[in-house]
Amino acid sequence: MGEFKVHRVRFFGYMPSGIRCMSFNERAERLALGRLDGTLEIFNFKDSFYQEKVIPGNDSRSVEAVCWVAERLFTAGLNGEITEYDLENLCPKYSLDAFGGPIWTVACNAQGTHLAVGCEDGSIKLFEILPEKIRFERNLDRQKGRVLSLSWHESGTRIAAGMLDMIRIFDVQSGHATHRMLVDRGVSGMRNHECVVWCVAFLSDLTVISTDSSGKVQVWNAAMGILSSTHLVSKSDVLSLAVSKDESSFVVGTSEGTVVQFQFLANILGGDEKAWVRTKTFKPHTHDVRALAEIGTAVVSGGLDTQLVVRPLLDKVDIMSYDNVLHKIHFPHRSLVSCAQKAGMLLFQFPAQLEVWRLGESEGRGKPGDTLFVKKNPEKLLQLKRKGEDHISCSAISPCGGWLAYSTVSSLRVYRLQCDEHVSISKVPKLPKVLRSAHQLSFSDDSSKLFAASTHSMVHVISLSQSECKHLHTFKPKSGSTEPVHLLAASKDGKWLAAANRGCEIHIYNLHKLKVPHCTVPIYGSCPTAMGIHPTSNNLLMVHADRQIFEYSIVEKQYTDWSRRVQREGLHKLWLERDTPVTHVTFNPRNAAQFMLHDTYMFCIIDQSLPLPDNKCQFYNQITLKSLSEQERLSHAHAFKMCTKYQHLLFLGLLDDESLVVVQRPLTDIASQLPAPVRLKKFAT
Amino acid sequence: MVASAEVRVARCGGSRINFIEPIITLDSRFLLCASGDAVHVYSTSTEERVHVLQGHVDLVTGLRLNSSNHLQVYSCSLDGTVKLWDFTDGILIKTYIVGHKIFSLYVSKFHEGTVFIILPMESSANTEAFQLVALHLPKTTGPEVEARDILSVLRDVSPIPKATSFGRGGEFVASASGLQLSVYFFRKQKTYRFSLKANDKKGARNRFTCVASHPNDDCIATGHEDGKIRLWRNFSQKKEYTYSTEHWHHSAVNALHFTPEGTELLSGGVESVLVLWRYGAGSKKDFVPRLGSAIEHISVSPDGSLYCTSHKDNKIVVMKSSRDISAIIQGLVKGETIRTDLLIDPRTKALVCNGKPGHLQFFSLRHDKQLYNLDIVQQEYIHEAGLHQCEVTKAAIDAQGSWLATVEERQENPEELDIILKLWAYDESTQSFHLNTSISMAHEGQISAMCFSGDAEATMLVTTGRDGHFKAWLLADHPDAQGEGASWSCDYVGSYHRREPTRCCFSADGSLLAVGFGEVVTVWSPSTWELLVTFSQPPGDIRDLCFGRLSCSKYLLGTTTKNLLCCWNLLTCSLEWSSTVDVILLQPDPLSENMAAFSRASGSTDLFVFKPSEPRPLFSQKAVCSGTVRRAVFAPREEVLEGCDESTQWLSCSRLYFLTEHMELMTFSTKSEEDQIIASSKQLVIDDSVAVTPFYLLLGKHRKSQRETQDSVSSHTAARIQLPQGSPAIRELLHTPAHVLPSASFLCNMFVNSLLISKSGVR
């Protein structure tokens, strides 16, 4: 099949940030996720849980609460500002200070007309939502003590507010508090500590559900202002709450990492008298569960252990399919590593800095499976801190290793890198004016051009030389799409450039004929997650979020025969059920028929000359093949060669000396950097 | 040769009272539990046995109160009958003959005239399959009724009674079997089945062990092998059913029961802790710890005032809902094995054998009741798998019952062996045994046999050890140990050609000691320690030795491992006779010349009773029980059985008890004896079960005196004149608080009556 020397890289200290809040948009089936560092991520639940958009964070902005209003996304944070986002340009649209100190929570009414925010100073402020912005309307009666959680009644006339030691029900019309419900502080040892009502939910039958820091889940009758039941679910805080759409169940998340489901069940089957009953307990996390969402068929939870868990509720699921199994999302669905193939250098992107490493060298050759002696250790050449408060959104290193570019929301910088004896870096001055910021950066194979994907799906082409850098051309898609470009692929011969945007469009431009776009690949319903142009045949290979593989001949402007065969015969079931999307495509220079794909848990070499596997044949057949003789092996071989030796892959690429670079980030390393979890008594310890 | 129909093998007390869940009557005054073939009725306050409901001829497997008449109880048995009893009077009312083995019985208040029983599936070759059926009880009169009207409810259920439970108002029945919970709704006539996975990555073992249904809500609680309790709800949905899980027990949940109001769920397991879960309050729970032994069943009285737990050591604990223990009913404790012989305590005529770990129990066979436990090891018992415990391996009581010898043993590995020989003296004042002498490492190896001499003057104990010696121990005063009284010390150490002694036996008068060394029997004179004679019958080692009694005391009997039963004449020192029988157990009757020999024959055990002097056996029965007999003993009867013919003559003064392989205590009973018992139980009229209140005293005595006066009037005999102040009626009247007195008009009449002087007296 092929033997490779593998650089196994485990020194990329990538550390995802903890999840702080989330909000699910049912109409668009998109989940907005706020992380502790202020990053916002949008997952498309229709499209295999693909991480569609990432809005990089900012040091001065924190995200405490996130809220969808129709297709608009609002966040509020401890800096006291409400921010609306531009989801096409992946940047904040505007921010508005609420003048109430840090904001803990934001909630929108069911009609979508008003936003309520809860502030540190005890005020609840109402904002009117206008088509282009929001406008402060009025304050509800100000109380003592911060407002930590808010929930609107369905009618929009009442608001429940969770505060310290109490829950208040407000009448929106008058702005007065109608009920004040005191929350018990819990066990005797905690009497001196205030009980923080972390979450409230106002149900349509005037029931209020609250979760608090003494581990209680309480159900209140808001019409009368009385407590109807108390469930002790944890010894520590209950931090999050999500109610299902039909209000027949809710889930709470505790700081012990458990998620507990409650259901509204009839005491007598078929009877009318119902009660909230604690039913299932899951433990998807090791740390605080800070954010929860009930999406009908599944519970989505996220917490300080940085992973997003989609846990299906099997009683709501009719058929088992890809969407109805447990998903854990650990890593971003985009590449944070870029590789200078010719120079053997790697660029690692962190939110606040970039790191350039030179790969080590090994001695001699060994048998397959051997670990070679490392002659020269990998070397960290450079650590480049970003300027400004905005986090780095994308970065690239040129194949020759001589250029380096990164972009934040507000600025784009290009550096000249020289690393012979001494490493020196110099910023390229006087960039063309068009280069304000980029969603994706890429260098051409000969390192002479920089491609920067900008707003409105435009791609700027910059020529780089020692003396100056010049704006050559801007490609605009014919469709006039405004979705951001997230993938760029340039051909090896420097003639073609393919750009894929979040609207699932893939445009192909001819770099020799700049005037007109060459063609557009027929739109497929799932977002492309990785693509590459074949170095010899100039076929564009695309892998989509639903793991379908297409090959498109740029020259002939049509799908290739192999691609048609794949579509006709279909891919293997096990391939389609893989958990994580393919994030990178590489071509084997030794064999034109082979290319390599990788996702988090495997990499795979696909040989286009071999028959495709059908659902009956064994998919992971390497071990079986090894035991067969040469002739039999041929008859059993199929196009997919899987390798699961390297887990938690962040990047896999081929260097020019035909050795593989594998960048791994073991989950245990991430877990070891997390703070210690809440101590739990385990039986027999 | 002997009509064996005359003599029957019967269970005789000492049966398991923890076999099925006990039930408490509606007024919480009686506790009913199945014990072997009978149902015992105990008083919940005094622990006393009130009645024995006898009539079944096989194990009783189910017991339920009749829901339409709370003074009646249904019982079912493996003999294929359901019987209805009046337990207050102990009368059998009706027998319904089903004709199949019945494994469990349920009664639902909402299904009048129907009981639910678990039967083996017919028509299937698989004997492991069982079904729950509704049995319609025919209304015809007559003591015995055929009940054939059965209707299958659930198939493939577990035969264990606690794996099935009837839900709220008899609307549904839930039954768990293996990994599946089945719920059948009577109204919809629909079955829902829910399955669990056998285990998961976290090591859960989800096999169901027991089921309980909430009395008012539609909630089913199930216990699992790994100690989890699941509360199932919404189980009328195929998919949207749901359950919550609680976990406290560390190993299997053995029993679950809701209180009648449904406010608490009781659970128990091997931890010997009764856990009380508050229903609807999540994991809030209370505990009743240190109940002594693993909980097997839990039941609650219908008014919720009494909880009752059955324990693994054959014990039933009754506690009030305030968690004070009010009664403990202890049966014969039977462990997995029994190391000691069965002994009879000459004073109490109680059976003595291993009981709780490290204890000896004294069990009265006549009253079917444990008299007391003697702590031999006197160490804390720690329950842990794989831990080597100190065990009582040998025990012997002398003929007068004043000395008890015990051997305890602990062996962690072959090199380290702890043996302690303890001698206990009977103390008249405290009526129990007290430790007199403790001898550690009495032998270098294990003690293989031990016996007391029958001599009343100088009691001697002989032990034989694996170290090749036998030792004689005598009670002696020690001059240096002042004020401590006499203690036991070694008197003689004997051996024979370095062979290993296996058995020892004293003759009835204590003048001869026989010790078996391998295949040689040596006979010694204990007074001079002179080797008198040796016998041997090679090949085959000596397995059992015993001297004949009374008229046969000139004979010494021995059995060998090579299937020989030999009888030596001690006067001629020759072999009198021998016979080729594989005798596994030879037991002499202390009150007669008879010997009982149990012999093994193809999977079952045969019994021969013979006199050493006569070649023909008195009695023989083939296949007494399946498997081998572990231990046997002759227990003297309280009174000599009358009316025995030749074949049952051997049972006239003593009864033969034996322990089967499955640790069941069995005995032999004659037909005439059984007839007597049945006749007496039917005539038995029990005193009114009305509580003895002041009111009762007043009225009851009044009635009695009335009857007396009537008698006296009719017979015209002179009745004594009752003085007014001495009359019990007046005394009661004066001593009883006013608020419990009957109405004044009633009392007035009585008062005047008591003052009247009867006519006969005047005359």
TrEMBL record, chain A:
InterPro entries: UTP4 (IPR046351), WD40/YVTN_repeat-like_dom_sf (IPR015943), WD40_repeat_dom_sf (IPR036322), WD40_rpt (IPR001680). This is UTP4 small subunit processome component. One of its GO terms (biological process) is hepaticobiliary system process. Pfam families: WD40. PANTHER family: U3 SMALL NUCLEOLAR RNA-ASSOCIATED PROTEIN 4 HOMOLOG. GO terms for cellular component: 90S preribosome; small-subunit processome; t-UTP complex. SUPFAM superfamilies: WD40 repeat-like. SMART domains: WD40. One of its GO terms (molecular function) is RNA binding.
TrEMBL record, chain B:
Its main location: nucleus. PROSITE patterns: WD_REPEATS_1, WD_REPEATS_2, WD_REPEATS_REGION. GO terms for biological process: positive regulation of rRNA processing; positive regulation of transcription by RNA polymerase I; rRNA processing. GO terms for cellular component: small-subunit processome. It comes from the Eukaryota. WD repeats lie at residues 53-95, 201-232, 246-277. Keywords: Nucleus, Repeat, Ribosome biogenesis, rRNA processing, Transcription, WD repeat. InterPro entries: Beta-prop_WDR75_2nd, Quino_amine_DH_bsu, Quinoprotein_ADH-like_sf, WD40/YVTN_repeat-like_dom_sf, WD40_repeat_CS, WD40_rpt, WDR75. GO terms for molecular function: RNA binding. It holds the Pfam family Beta-prop_WDR75_1st. Residues 342-663 form the WD repeat-containing protein 75 second beta-propeller domain. This is WD repeat domain 75. It is found in: Nucleus, Nucleolus. Gene3D superfamilies: YVTN repeat-like/Quinoprotein amine dehydrogenase. The gene is WDR75. PANTHER family: WD REPEAT-CONTAINING PROTEIN 75.
